[in-house]
Please model this.
Amino acid sequence: MLVPRKVVISFYSGSRGGTGKTTLAVNTAIALLMALRVPVAYVDFGVDGTHMGSLMLSAKTDTVGVTDYLMGFVDNDEVIQRSGLIDGLYVVPPGTVDSIRMIHSMPRGLRPVIERLGSLVTRLAEHRAYVVIMDLPSGLAQPYTIASLVNSDIVNVVLDHSPGALEALTSIGTVLNVVRPRVVNAVLNKYIPNAQPSLREKVEGFVSNGGVFTLSMSVVLHYLTSQLKPFIKYKPVGDLREFMKDFTRFMGALKTQVKQVLGGVL
Ligand SMILES: Nc1ncnc2c1ncn2[C@@H]1O[C@H](COP(=O)(O)OP(=O)(O)OP(=O)(O)O)[C@@H](O)[C@H]1O
Ligand SMILES: [Mg+2]
Model:
């Protein structure tokens, strides 16, 4: 069988939580769908039980999802949904409470998890979703986190723009040195201009074949996320305008990286 080409993009933050991965992953899925005009898939590893990303994309969350699939309880087609928010977007929700609990307490060997996740990505690509976005939970190296990173072409390491981010990069770097994705970007989120010295130079040595992207703190974005509304669907107002400039720059670079990985497919 002909295996379609695909690009997998992960949003990862090592053990630091609440850095903006879900907010950015959901909006990136919509932004790339609009820019590249191909179906995009969003895989929600919100195994902390929030399901926020799937809810933002109007997917059903009281159903089987990626953890049920990785545990081998269901087939891949059973966990792939269509977003109720936007055409051409597929969503794989986190999964049932039982499988989420089990995936923490009874991890299967790493190789079967890696292979199973790889075949979910292939299945999504057969639906023409050549771009697959993985929204990871915080936690340095659980089996499903490693499986996602191993299956990724592009890893966006999303951290708060704070000195603690530099500390976190050391342990994240250790994991990524083993996994070796083709592109590693660093996203320093929630930057407060004029109040913080830039960390860009200190982080530049960490990225590979990618860039450092600084995204501003935005009260409007925070409000929209809390209302489960993707900011990309709203006209930039107030402080969202500054943020949108930063985000657009990030999307421009990501689009180029995606096209490079996919070669002539798009
Ligand atoms: N640039 C920003 N400006 C202001 N608030 C932001 C920004 N980015 C994210 N947030 C807010 O930070 C909070 C955490 O965001 P989010 O849930 O996307 O993080 P996460 O990394 O996915 O968290 P977790 O590790 O729990 O999965 C949310 O309330 C969100 O609105
Ligand atoms: Mg999240």
About this structure: The first strand starts at residue 7 and ends at 12. The pocket of adenosine-5'-triphosphate (ligand 1) is lined by residues 13, 17-23, 48, 52, 137-138, 189-190, 215, 217-218, 221-222, 225-226, 243 (CB under 6 Å). The longest helix spans residues 240-262. Strands lie at 7-12, 40-44, 81-82, 89-92, 131-135, 154-160, 183-191, 212-216.
